[in-house]
Amino acid sequence: MNRLLDAPLPRQAGWGHVLGSALLWAFLLQLVTGVLLSMYYSPTEERAYASVAYIQDRMTAGATIRAMHHYGATAVIILAALHLARVFFLRAYLDRRSAWVLGWIAFLAILGLGFTGYTLPRDMNAYFSLQVGANVAGLIPGIGDSIVQFLYGGPTMEEWTLQRIFTLHAVVLPCVVLLASIAHVLRVSQKGLVGEPSEKRFHPDLLPKIAAAVFVLTLAWVGLAASRPIPMEPPADPTNATYVPHPEWYFFGFQQLLRMFEGTGEFVGAILIPFAVIAALVALPWYDRRPESRGRVRAACGVALLLGYSALTVAGYRAYLHDVANAPKPMVDVAPPRLDYAWMEAGEPDTELVDLGQHYYQALNCAVCHETPEVGRAMNVPAELASAGDRLRPRWTVEYLRRPWPIRFEDRQKRPHGRMPDFRLTEEEAVALAAYLTTLHDPARVPVAGIDWKTPDRRKTAEGADLYRRLLCFQCHKINGEGEEMGPDLSKIARRLKPDYMHAIIGAPQKILPGTKMKYDDLPPEHVEALVRYLQTLK
Amino acid sequence: MTEERRKVLGWISGCLGGCALLTAGAPVLGFLSNAVRRKRRTRAFDLGDAAALPDGQFRLVTFTYEDETGYTRRPRILSAYLRRDGDRVLALSPICTHLRCNVAWDGASKGFMCPCHGGMFDAEGRVTKGPPVEPLFRFPIELKDGSMTLIVPESYKG
Predict the structure, then answer these.
(1) How many beta carbons lie within 10 A of that of residue A456, not counting itself?
(2) Residues in B touching A236 (Cβ below 8 Å)
(3) For the complex shown, is ipTM > 0.85?
């Protein structure tokens, strides 16, 4: 211990030498948050998404730990790149060949960790990023297909593809990084830092600086993670044809290379150029050996490389924004209908509109997330739609379909539960979909109450308002700003829910919403009716 | 003598170590290579009501089948863009031949667009723009006793 603290430092030792230690700290913290996440994450097709959603929504500090792991990847990559750039520009790799190569091995494994990491949650972006990333290897002539198949563990994504990627991410790559960094640190401490010998020692000339840097880094990191959790996207839909996937920011430049080269040149852009650049950098200590030569050329090449990749990153991000704005809608050649709201008052929509809505429902692949009688439940996260016609008022459905987030989830950052995608539907399309949804009934779940809700009953409505207070509903629900937030806000509830459904919930909350905290299973029927009549006035 | 002894024993140690690596390596490589050798079966799907498709328009049709992979059985979805021209049916794979994203039919440009890297194909599946080289895969269609069957060959990666 004392030998380490007393280790002599060169005269040049200063803030620049903090980068390596800060990097080590960031990586160790990544190991800790990674181990925590792996305790609940399930790397299977069926449960990966649900397990991440559980960590995100339900676990104590889950969203923060997940966000720490996410921002940590960025911290590690930035620190590693800065550390590398510093060694490159100061030419500290001279006479430190093995440390330089070990550092590169760790850096490439870190990039691999970044990539495998964002393919794990099995949301839309994870699925398509994995598909694209794995198939980049397929561009290598000859053995490419075998490499892709090796990554997948079969001809296409298989039951165990996620398991393999998880093994890479959580076992193989961290081991590579750890072993390479340990050897790297040992090698550097053996040789000492580059510079003129001086009186400086590790402590007190460097250690306090490292501590200060680690403190600031950690504070910013955890603060960011706690205040800005990472929202999840909708669960993966392998048949979706309009979702535009995006890599993490550090791969946007690489993605732009993929785009720039067309046809058979693709191999050049995706494989040859990155490989040649990395090989040239790794081999630097072997061809750049004469003490005072080519300093300017090297610096110019380094700056050109940095600027070039930055330009590619910006271009890649702009191309992504352009694609998002111009992605086609999956309606497959079907013209939108005439706008028709008349049926919402009259009762049943006409069959032509319903058929069109059903077509949209299939084209958008709503069943990937929502349970319906024909398809069965694919994901256990979002609302079932088999009884949508019993529950939802079509006008609300139209509004919701067109603007899913602001309507139901005011603040997506604060409550990252709103995973319903915005399909950029036209009003006509939304009305057709709402028409189809109104025809879905499930009497076993939402029985017909047999009460004439259309005829107003002032006495019962007033009784309902009185019951609402006496039963202390406001202890969980809010109406126009009064009450608590545990249950849904009821201010405009009549716009969303139909009376029969309210009747079913209030009559038997546990049956309709299993696991709900709402009690009162034994209200007399006339009280249930009165409450519903009161709630139906809240528009 | 001792130099000679060192040399011989050095060779022997090297050989023993190499043999140990090879012996342990054989089952390891065997286990790993399993992934590369796996294959899918050729499958056929009945296109029963293809005649009911509107003439000259694409429809995205999905086929579900029970897939057995190792210890699991689960439903897998395949999809195809079908277009009927008279009594001929064209079945195009929606998988982009670049990096296997799904292409979408864009009614405005009368072609298929890939959302990932800007690849585009015309209504026959030929490349018109972007990185892809190969055209969209055409599923073979078999006519048997008047009913049409779509064939998904074992080499299809979808």
Answers:
(1) 11
(2) none
(3) yes
